[in-house]
Amino acid sequence: MSTTQEENGLPEGWQVRRSNTKNLPYYFNPATKDSRWEPPAGTDTEKLKLYMAKFHSSKVPSSGVSAPEGKIRAAHLLVKHRDSRRPASWREPKITRSFQDAQGLIEGYRERIHNGESLSELATTESDCSSASKGGDLWATPLHLDELTLTGHRGYFSRGDMQKEFEDAAFNLQKGELSDIVATASGLHLIQRLE
């Protein structure tokens, strides 16, 4: 079944496909053979956001095995700003919001989570990280995670694998607990420890 630009918001000729190796969606143009992790120029990001939430979000179940010694598993929601290390995302090819605007957004998301929404649901449509397609879960995210430098095995990470601010916050959480807002060079995060 072919998806039109009206449905997914992508420019003419572009498709959303799923990577077999990373199990993540990516963007592909069969005519030019161009593929990329970020949406191509000219994408209607609001339509894409709705399309991705409907067809490409999936909750990754618990692994069923205990975490390797000294390692944890987490999910996060990332809001980037123009001073982030890489001010672009699957939602926006160029992020121009200020740090203060990003802080206002993430404070609103934190409030919504406290009022009953899940981090997973919000991350699917609002996170500026490629882990959005997995509800923010780092379990099935590629090793290059918007520059967080995930080097752990299958989403588990230990100290020294992530940006220090991120890992310090994650390791200080109990299973299921949500962090305060955490600032890293990548942007602002809400982190939830999963295992």
Automatic annotation (TrEMBL):
Domain of life: Eukaryota
Domain WW: 8-42
Keyword Isomerase (UniProt): yes
UniProt GO cellular component terms: cytosol; nucleus
GO BP annotations listed: regulation of macromolecule metabolic process; regulation of primary metabolic process
Catalytic activity: [protein]-peptidylproline (omega=180) = [protein]-peptidylproline (omega=0)
Residue intervals passing through the bilayer: none
Alphabetical list of PROSITE patterns matching this protein: PPIC_PPIASE_2, WW_DOMAIN_1, WW_DOMAIN_2
Protein name: Peptidyl-prolyl cis-trans isomerase
Family matches, as InterPro entries: PPIase_dom_sf (IPR046357), PPIase_Pin1 (IPR051370), PPIase_PpiC (IPR000297), WW_dom (IPR001202), WW_dom_sf (IPR036020)
MF terms in GO: peptidyl-prolyl cis-trans isomerase activity
Domain PpiC: 69-195
Enzyme class: isomerase
EC numbers, comma separated: 5.2.1.8
Keyword list, A-Z: Isomerase, Rotamase
